[in-house]
Amino acid sequence: xxAVPSTLLLSTLLSLLLLHFPSPSAANEGNLIVTGDVxxxxxxxxxxxxxxxxxxxxxxxxxxxxxxxxxxxxGLGHNCTATISDYGELQIKNSIGNIVWSxxxxxxxxxxxxxxxxxxxxxxxxxxxxxxxxxxxxxVENTVGEEKINKEPSTPNLLFSSEVLNEKTKLASRDYxxxxxxxxxxxxxxxxxxxxxxxPTKSITGQYCxxxxxxxxxxxxxxxxxxxxxxxxPAYADGVYVLVVKINGEAVIYGKRIWST
Length: 261
Prior knowledge:
Blueprint: H1 10-20, E1 32-34, E2 38-39, E3 44-47, E4 50-54, E5 60-63, E6 69-70, E7 81-84, E8 90-93, E9 99-102, E10 113-116, E11 122-125, E12 128-131, E13 137-138, E14 142-143, E15 158-160, E16 164-166, E17 170-173, E18 176-180, E19 186-190, E20 194-198, E21 210-213, E22 219-222, E23 227-232, E24 241-246, E25 250-255, E26 257-260
Antiparallel strand pairs: 1-10, 2-7, 3-4, 4-5, 5-6, 7-8, 8-9, 10-11, 11-26, 12-25, 13-23, 14-23, 15-24, 16-21, 17-18, 18-19, 19-20, 21-22, 22-23, 24-25
Protein name: Bulb-type lectin domain-containing protein
Keywords: Signal
Domain Bulb-type lectin: 24-137, 156-261
């Protein structure tokens, strides 16, 4: 794996790439792909200071303000695509579907996400642990502890381990949003009116609540008395996890991170 050289014109290059290359299909936001999505030739993932693109020479390249990354597959195919398998492999396939490059396989089958992170690196997270289509949570009365409970989300549709979502703030993707309400309820909504899912906490008193994702993949709704009023079940393995609000109408916890550039 070779490094992409930095230049004094990197900021200009990133701007030109953002203008030139299309984003991925409407299946997800432009900063991630999940199992089943396809990043077509000359399509990209983007964040403010980085671009991750499958170029027309079949090379998968990360342009950022650091050393970047490239797959080293230039010239190994035409009309190449990038996908993420149900074993967490980020794969490059040529025009006839042959795999010309891949990251290591994970042991467990499931849905995975390749995310261009706000730090300009790419991480693979999975498998999916919980989503708003499942019950998956329960009410408790426990203290939270002292570790990192004040870092707000750095990306509108993502919440990483140690970040918090405060009352009356949202994660959002197109028409869908996940919000901590004044009633200390976590609500997943479409538009301004339709509540698709809500945490079972309406009868529990609390104000100034916030949502936190810990380093065991556990999502917790916490009130102003530092009590957990609702949480998902933990994955137990320590690592970096991510909660994603997706444009297909669900919020999903992926993790832990199994690969990164």
